[in-house]
Amino acid sequence: MGYQGDRFRERTSRELLCDAVALSAKIAAFEAQRVAVVAEVERRCTRVDHGYASTKGWLSSVTVVSPGAAGRIVELGAGLAEHPAVAEAFDEGRIAFEHALLIVRFCTKPPKGMPAEALPGCVAALLAAADGPLARTDGVRTAIAKLEAIFESDDQPTSEDTDRNELYVSKTLNGRVAIRGDVDAVTGEMLLTALSKYSAPQPASEGTPDARAPRQRRADGLTQLLSMLLAFGELGVEGGERPHLSVHVHARDLGQDRREEYARRHAGAGATANTRPPQDPHHPDSANGSDSTDSSDDTDDTDDLTDLADRRGIAWSPWMGPLTINTARLLGCDANVTAIILDEHGAPLSVGRTHRTVTRAQRKALAARDGGCAFPGCGATAAWCEGHHITHWADGGPTDLDKLVLLCGTHHRLLHTTDWEVTIGKTRHPVFTPPTSVDPAREPVPSRQRVGTCTRTRVADRHPPRRSTVRRSNVSGEKDSADDAAPVH
């Protein structure tokens, strides 16, 4: 048969462009047909018919389709049968396979807070985001993240679930090291940010392009990154500044009250999807005389979901895409922060001076006071911890020692995503107050540095049955007073 490219060598540039578009349309049509056929095979055929334990196994064994791709084909076929609007757009070639699968997965497992009658509007919004050749996966994921923010539930997005993180580093028989992993969006953002400088193409001095494949450049970049880290403890400079984690978030979203947000999500089935916390006179949106009666806030979120840009906000990271506001607030506790003022169209108006919210000197003082993660029963060392603002700096909280507490990543996330609260007592040590789901009386519990002289039930036994569990330890002693302290945000 020969090389297929020989057929096109005599074609003009214009003809080649038309051929590529026409063939792509045919491939999309055949892909839709394959999904439909495989869906029917899944519905009707059994092991007796094709000789395999599953349709996925059969398809990957008799074609060049990988097992993972075969499983996605089976999954999409089953989902399209339940959602005809998505099936129509996919069959007509308006949305890509990957985008159709993302939408089907959203429909199959929608946010717990979303009423059933809102699903058609959500599907329409997602189809609009996925429609046409200019649609990109990040855009579809962003639309999904915005919908999940509108109909929030207790479930953490898969992309931010740190309990799913895995990293395998194994020595092989030939003396090499095999690395395989699956990490959350924030960890991925940090990794890609750190690798960016060292994995970029490096042309030779005479201008010859870098011949290394991307996978080779990333491996070389990891080697260089680790060498720099071990030798100097720094990551060099890229684009005029040290590599750092960047998260873009609107001030009005970053400043939302976490406790009121948590209470809204737990208000019960009677709460509507567009419930907002009470208007704070010091909130950024209250400037220029605006109030909570603005017409944009009175619109029911379930009525029109096509204009997602004006809906409940999300944070955005350059490499990994959308993040929840809670994660943005968590990252903002102990970080370098640069304020970028945007106009109503999202265009930058000015860039403020970068400042660090928790200084190195303050971290040393926190380590001396808290001895590591201050959460009762936790044994994490100070080197593994982050400085947490008792009142978030976005809400006007100062970066003072008496307004900070040292927490490990697990308990830092716990305070940002649940109704646990932390205050500084009269002895100037942290005091933690559990939510009613843990202790209906909400009796304060002293930090781990203050638990050696009392008799008290184990904190771990009072912790809610969540994924982020607290290490067990005996907690005893007179509890610190919670007076004169601000609740956590």
Automatic annotation (TrEMBL):
<dbReference type="InterPro" id="IPR002711">
    <property type="entry name" value="HNH"/>
</dbReference>
<feature type="domain" description="HNH nuclease">
    <location>
        <begin position="361"/>
        <end position="413"/>
    </location>
</feature>
<protein>
    <submittedName>
        <fullName>HNH endonuclease</fullName>
    </submittedName>
</protein>
<feature type="region of interest" description="Disordered">
    <location>
        <begin position="197"/>
        <end position="217"/>
    </location>
</feature>
<feature type="region of interest" description="Disordered">
    <location>
        <begin position="431"/>
        <end position="489"/>
    </location>
</feature>
<keyword id="KW-0378">Hydrolase</keyword>
<dbReference type="GO" id="GO:0008270">
    <property type="term" value="F:zinc ion binding"/>
</dbReference>
<keyword id="KW-0540">Nuclease</keyword>
<comment type="similarity">
    <text>Belongs to the Rv1128c/1148c/1588c/1702c/1945/3466 family.</text>
</comment>
<dbReference type="GO" id="GO:0003676">
    <property type="term" value="F:nucleic acid binding"/>
</dbReference>
<keyword id="KW-0255">Endonuclease</keyword>
<dbReference type="GO" id="GO:0004519">
    <property type="term" value="F:endonuclease activity"/>
</dbReference>
<dbReference type="InterPro" id="IPR003870">
    <property type="entry name" value="DUF222"/>
</dbReference>
<feature type="compositionally biased region" description="Acidic residues">
    <location>
        <begin position="294"/>
        <end position="306"/>
    </location>
</feature>
<dbReference type="Pfam" id="PF02720">
    <property type="entry name" value="DUF222"/>
</dbReference>
<feature type="region of interest" description="Disordered">
    <location>
        <begin position="256"/>
        <end position="306"/>
    </location>
</feature>
<dbReference type="Pfam" id="PF01844">
    <property type="entry name" value="HNH"/>
</dbReference>
<dbReference type="InterPro" id="IPR003615">
    <property type="entry name" value="HNH_nuc"/>
</dbReference>
